[in-house]
Amino acid sequence: MKRHPDHDTLLKYALQTLSAGEAGKIRKHVGACRGCRARVERLEREIGLLGSIRPQLSAAIPPLPRKSMPWPSVWLRAAAILVVGFLLGLSTAQFVQPRPVDVVEQYVVPQPPEATSGAAVSCAPIDLPTTLR
After folding, report:
1. Domain boundaries, the chain
2. Cα(36)–Cα(58) distance, rounded to whole angstroms?
């Protein structure tokens, strides 16, 4: 190897999880490199220490909670959810509702068009409804 293997590769070597080809390369490098050999030995000692630790449970495991709730509690929660949903919907509807528009009636009395030079103007009488006269 031209470079030293990284920490993860040495850890995999110490745990013996590398493929046979990679393990052979690392074994050859560790045999020639004193620094990498020391790192592998330290990793093997730490792995041995971790393997010798046995957990001790001193605290009692609390009982599991009941899976079912009493029926009144279920109904009260459902009713509370419905009330909150109704109030949220009502308040949202107040903001979303469009404002009323005031409509004012207007009458338009037609005016004859203004004559411009070169434009044709009709002189025929126009019958207007009696309500507008």
Report:
1. 7-52
2. 40
Instruction: Measure the CA–CA gap between 123 and 113, rounded to whole angstroms.
Output: 11
CA-to-CA separations, 46 to 26, 27, 33, 50, 83, in angstroms, rounded: 19, 19, 20, 6, 60
Instruction: Look up residue 88 and give its two tokens.
Output: 């949220």
pTM score, whole prediction: 0.41
What string of pLDDT tens digits covers the 133 residues of the chain?
Answer: 568 899 999 999 999 999 999 999 999 999 999 999 999 999 999 988 888 877 776 777 778 777 776 777 888 999 999 999 999 988 888 777 777 788 888 777 887 767 666 556 566 666 666 655 4
